[in-house]
Amino acid sequence: MKTTISRKLADGPPALRISKTNAINAINSPDDIQIIKLDGDDHLSELRLYAKRVEKPGRSLMIILVAMYRGDTDELQVCDGYKIYEGLADIAAVTPLEAMESLVDKFGLNIRVGNQRGKFIYDQKIPLDGDSNDPNKIVEIEGELPADVEQCFMLKVDDKDGNKVASVGMAYALDMTAYGKYVRES
Predict the structure, then answer these.
(1) Which of 11, 123, 133, 166 has its CA 20 to 30 A from that of 22?
(2) Using one digit for the tens of pLDDT, what is the confidence trace for 124-143?
(3) Count of structural domains, the chain
């Protein structure tokens, strides 16, 4: 499998960095992996969440990688990575998806996909109204934006008999200033 890791994982602020070595280790030897198959995708795409628990003196953390796998080309694209410390979630017991839910619940911004609103939307089919070819009309971060936002909108729009549906693998937006402070203080 060909694996590509986003440069932002290793090039971000020091406290938020996840090294390429740690990312490859999480992919090759995950403690847990969850797969969300994206229905109707002719490329056999999957959203994958990799989790690797790390024990350090005085603290435990879980590294979560958000990746897209394409079965037709056997390629894995790691898009995002996060550090979740004990206390935000019971990292010994939660699944990668539950860990992401805890992270987004704490640091997420309100979003809208079609008419669906929330902080964390995943594995859903959402009917779209009207002329929904414009991505700005399909997905929106609501409210006032903080200075540093990271967003992930993994979705595909299908037109079935004139009815448009967004097949959402995962959608969220994070306040990276607040998240960065949490990581530095953990």
Answers:
(1) 123
(2) 888 887 665 666 678 899 99
(3) 1
pTM higher than 0.85 for the full model? yes
Least Cα distance to 35 among 96, 93, 90, 77 occurs for 96
Rounded to the nearest 10 degrees, the angle between the axes of helix 96-107 and helix 176-185 is: 110
Q: Which residues contact 97 (CB under 8 A, 6 or more apart)?
A: 34, 49, 122
Write the CA distances from 115 to 15, 128, 143, 150, 166, integer angstroms: 36, 7, 16, 22, 11
The H or E element containing residue 8 is helix 7-11
Closest CA relative to residue 33, chosen from 67, 73, 10, 3: 67
One-letter identity of residue 80: D
DSSP string covering 106-118, please?
Answer: HHB--EEETTEEE
- DSSP code at position 89: B
Q: Which domain holds residue 33?
A: 2-185
Q: Which two tokens stand for residue 50?
A: 């990799």
Specify the amino acid at residue 94: V
